[in-house]
Amino acid sequence: MPIIKSAIERVKTNNKANVRNTAQMSAMRTAVKKFENAKTAGAENVDDLYLAAVSAVDKAATKGLIKRNKAARDKSRMAARYAK
């Protein structure tokens, strides 16, 4: 544990950001997996799940959790899978 006050505050801030980022990444991965599973199973709500997954990927890219190129690549793969 740090002794200096600013370092202590920084640890708290980093922990809060870590929790927030982890939750956001988990939500993104879950949305993408739900879409993939629904597409494989031939579910009826594939349209809604596709839009939710694209939105989650865009949000993660905007927040800086993933790079823009990864977001574009993921969305492209989902779009190709959605079109099949």
UniProtKB/TrEMBL annotation:
Keyword Ribonucleoprotein attributed: yes
GO cellular component: ribosome
Keywords: Ribonucleoprotein, Ribosomal protein, RNA-binding, rRNA-binding
Gene3D superfamilies to which the protein is assigned, alphabetical: Ribosomal protein S20
Membership in a protein family: Belongs to the bacterial ribosomal protein bS20 family.
PANTHER family named among the record's database cross-references: 30S RIBOSOMAL PROTEIN S20, SMALL RIBOSOMAL SUBUNIT PROTEIN BS20C
Record's function text: Binds directly to 16S ribosomal RNA.
Listed name of the protein: Small ribosomal subunit protein bS20
Organism of this sequence: Lactiplantibacillus daowaiensis
